[in-house]
Amino acid sequence: MSRKPIIAGNWKMHNTTKESVELTKGIIEGIKDLNKDSLPEIVIAPVFTSLCSVACELKECKEIALSSQNCYYEPKGAFTGEISLDMLKDLNVTNVIIGHSERRQYFKEDDEMINKKAIAILENGLTPIICCGETLEQREMGVTDSHVSSQIVKALENIEPSEIEKVVIAYEPIWAIGTGKTCDSQEANRVIKVIRNTIAQVAGNAVAEKVRILYGGSVKPSTIVEQMAQSDIDGALVGGASLKAEDFVEIIKGAM
Ligand code: PEP
């Protein structure tokens, strides 16, 4: 089963609109001479305030898709500070990152909320990029597999298999995010297989084989080739290294 790789850049809370546009231009320039047929799916996730200008920059560029870093699941109403899926679709956003460990940790998002967001994103025809991963403490306690499986089961509750096959999962061991400590590629592949088995239990083997599962956690130009060589790693969710066009483009090349 061949799954098209995805390289997604999570810009987190970085970049003014001007800086976001510059970074977007740099990535467009960096990929312009690459073989379009071998490119991975490329996704960039700027801050909300830059989405509109980045969307304009991407108008002529079919190779890069736009993602937001979050959304709210209600369609509209008295939810101060939140952004609906209609508002995101208005800006040509096609992907939404949900369940990032930073949102779980700092903004107390739980599995129930992540599940509601996943359902709403799919109902709106967008792609959720659902993050999961263990803390260092959980890894040392030996509960990595049960923890990520439970996160995935809860995130996918009440979603039909025909919709589950459209989701993207990002396995991001929390101890590897922003720390420079990349998870060993074989170990990342092992946990990703656990996630694929979990999806198979929920939605069947055929669906599990279709779902793209990314690795995230200090991915760099120097790590991507080995990561992409693993049987079950279908791409990367990249934080820090997505903020420099040259590094992000090198990572894209490593996935070709
Ligand atoms: C992330 O933000 O999802 C991430 C993986 O960050 P970094 O690549 O900086 O570890």
Topology:
Elements: E1 6-10, H1 17-31, E2 41-45, H2 48-57, E3 64-68, H3 85-89, E4 93-98, H4 101-106, H5 111-123, E5 127-132, H6 136-141, H7 144-155, H8 161-164, E6 168-171, H9 185-203, H10 205-210, E7 212-216, H11 224-228, E8 235-238, H12 245-254
Parallel strand pairs: 1-2, 1-8, 2-3, 3-4, 4-5, 5-6, 6-7, 7-8
Description:
The chain has 256 residues and is α/β, with parallel strands linked by helices. Helix content is 43%, strand content 16%. The chain is built from twelve helices and eight strands. The protein has helices at residues 17-31, 48-57, 85-89, 101-106, 111-123, 136-141, 144-155, 161-164, 185-203, 205-210, 224-228, 245-254; strands spanning 6-10, 41-45, 64-68, 93-98, 127-132, 168-171, 212-216, 235-238. The chain has an eight-stranded parallel beta barrel, surrounded by five helices. Helix 1 links the parallel strand 1 and strand 2 (41-45). Helix 1 packs parallel to helix 2 (48-57) and helix 7 crosses helix 9. The radius of gyration is 17 Å and the shape is globular. It starts with 5 loop residues before the first strand and ends with a helix. The mean pLDDT is 97. Bound molecules: phosphoenolpyruvate (PEP). Phosphoenolpyruvate (PEP) binds next to strand 8.
